[in-house]
Design a protein that fits this description.
Blueprint (H helix, E strand, L loop, with lengths): L5 E5 L5 H14 L10 E5 L4 E5 L6 H5 L10 H19 L5 E3 L8 E3 L5 E3 L6 E3 L24 H6 L4 H17 L6 H10 L16 H14 L12 H13 L20 E3 L5 E3 H9 L18 E2 L1 H12 L2
Antiparallel strand pairs: 1-3, 2-3, 4-7, 5-6, 8-9, 8-10
Amino acid sequence: MLGRTVAIKKLHPHNMQGQSEFQQEVRVLSKLQHPHLVTLLGACPEAWSLVYEYLPNGSLQDRLFRKSNISPLTWKARVRIAAEISSALCFLHSSKPEKIVHGDLKPENILLDSELSCKICDFGICRLVTEETLYSPSFQRGTVPKGAFPYSDPELHRTGVLTPKSDIYSFGLIILQLLTGKPPVGLAGEVRKAVSCGKLTSVLDSSAGDWPTFVARRLLDLGLQCCELYYRDRPDLTPALVRELEQLHVAEERPVPSFFLCPILQEIMHDPQVAADGFTYEGEALRGWLENGRNTSPMTNLEFSHLHLTPNHALRLAIQDWLCRT
């Protein structure tokens, strides 16, 4: 490491938690290599110190809240960072023979390199789980890892069980922060209210530039799904979802097929639904149309023969495939 700039993290060995965090971080990071996980270069047990690669652009927390008057992250950089976090989490959660749950995911633990590419750090309280131990308590009921609030899973507070879906909850809040540039407390509720009132743009961080509507809506939908109170309602972080996020920031550079757009919103559909008039709409948009007392087609102005909607699975798969293509 001669001539190389490194970062040194010194833990406090005077309590059992400091000792266990040191051992856990060495155990996990010495075996893992991923482009979006921080690289552990060495450890010094005598000094309770860990040596990492140096990342010059600080933490995502610093960048989002612009400490030292640094320039704001563009919307494209934010979408790419969300994709990079998802890639790292997917890697951890599919690790064999034990899944790895980070357990303390927050913007302070996401570092940025010279290219503003992100790397997750601080694995001191991560949990290694097998299918058999997945739902075994990790912490005493009613306790959470230090410093994790408000990013910690509400079900972790209630049950003491740390699962991959706990990381998904934290990831959802980080997505909402990337979109809004706002502090995390009460953020999911604020965003839900804005979306339900049709004021999506009012919560977007304008310092990131002009967000493409379908990009912002997709990320808002995903962030809110990840922030559901119960883990069973949160999405799984699949390779397909990671690929979609990886391509989201470049999708607007390609011409969008017209039949991918909702006739009402003129945006790419994420939940295409066929109505009685034979046209496909974004489900949320058509439900809003109907809830406002309308019973006529937005396309033909004729009265609907019925108000049932049918999911257009073929179109949804085609849109997902288009979004995932390089």
